[in-house]
Automatic annotation (TrEMBL):
InterPro entries: Epimerase_deHydtase, NAD(P)-bd_dom_sf, NAD(P)-dependent_oxidoreduct. It comes from Trichocoleus desertorum GB2-A4. It comes from the Bacteria. This is NAD-dependent epimerase/dehydratase family protein. The lineage of its organism: Bacteria, Bacillati, Cyanobacteriota, Cyanophyceae, Leptolyngbyales. It holds the Pfam family Epimerase. Residues 3-226 form the NAD-dependent epimerase/dehydratase domain.
Amino acid sequence: MKALVTGANGFTGSHLVRLLEQRGDQVVGLVRKSSNLSRLADTQVHLVYGDLSDREALRTAMQGVDIVFHTAAYVELGLVNAAEMERVNVEGTRAVMEVAKEVDVAKVVYCSTIGVFGDTQGQVVDETFQRTQKDFSSAYDRTKYDAQVFVDQMAQQGLPVVSVMPSGIFGADDPHFIPVLRQFLKGGLKLWAGGDRVTGVVHVDDLAMAMILAAERAPTGEHYIISAGDLTTREMFQIVGQQAGIAAPTEAPKALVRLVGNILDPLGRLFSWQPPLSRERVHYVYDRCVRVDAAKARRELNWQPRSVADTLTEIAQAVQKTL
């Protein structure tokens, strides 16, 4: 099989590239000329340079390709360039889908997010759930929802596309959680906000396998939630701190966290700075709760992920070796 991975140098994309190569597949990666390629240093991926909006680059990258895995996205909360996020997440996805249809690829797997369901207010939902949240919690929330709507329209028009919807993606090289985990395992994280926040967890390699299974087995237009389960942030710290003998951080006062977010938000906008807390980030910590059931992927794709506890323990052990 010959596969194209958009965003091949990213966290999810690079793990997918490696898994495909381990299977003996030929892999093409679409990356920008400015991309950091360190994650691909030990791979044989053939790189095509171009932006998602560059349809000629997309046509070149898809030449002779059987499967397109669209993982590229602008992922960020807080103070973001909403116009750029729209260009990447919505218009970029539009370009990938339209070119894939034009060149008649056999299958497209789109990496979406459980965020498209909106705030489920703690209700555990599956793929049949219809979003009830009327507004959007962030530019990321809105752009990924709009992209998903377009992908579904393309499926109705005959594009053989399948959507996987991961929860929180974790791995030993995770750019978001690992810096926090390193600080915690060094004993330097004494205070944390939102210990009761529920987070879905999936190992990045299990997500990559789910995408390959979706390419091989899923009918056109299907959606698959990809999550090993969920737990609170406090429980997460308890699991990763157990072997190191480190207690979970103390919970920061909610009122203080909200106050700090309200103060730092306008300062960040004024100085073009991404503060550690903003109104949007505080909203995600305290006010939004998306919970999902991934039974469909287990049942229909025979997806068998490692458990949440095993995922977190494995990552913690890998990080500890680098301290």
